[in-house]
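Journal club side-thread
Mid-discussion, someone asked how the predicted structure for our own chain would compare to the paper's figures. Pasting it here so we can look after the session.
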Amino acid sequence: MTKSEKQEYLQTGEVDHVSPGRDDMRATEFLTRDLDYFRLENKYKDLFFKIRLKNSVDEKVLLPKNESLRFEFATYNEKPVVLHGNKIVQQLDFNNGWPSDDLNMPNTKFNSSSTIKYKSGKSLPETIAVNLHARKDGSQHVSEYLPSAVDQDGIDDGPAAQILFLFNDDTLTARIVSMTADGGLGVV
């Protein structure tokens, strides 16, 4: 990517390149952006999952393909958290409690750091997708992120998948897409 392409990329916050097929990627892009919302966008397949909430009953959700669900960022004890209603989201569990296919939210029992992490498989390490920082005024700020996380064996028995992390104004979107047999992206 040329210097001018990178500047345009950082200004728009849109992903114009990804490296499919790698589970060992680390944060490679740096971005300064204030965030108010986290959105899960499903371009993959109908997904049945649990929203694991702190000090509350888990919420079961069916998110049809081509639909999305919006959450809010907030600050709790001077650390960034994700809210659903007024409850802290600990995890989006796409595999009914098994230790894989989990999007772990920041500063929870599943993830003690100020990051959003994806766990694709039981024996695989988590992919740190986004580093967040809480500001004194309560807003969330992202400093670095990984454009995508890969799940080679698919999410909840689906085809190989990739979660693209995209920024648009005050929203961080995690877009779930399928990968083609050659490692490319399906519908983006």
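Post-session note: The first strand starts at residue 29 and ends at 35.
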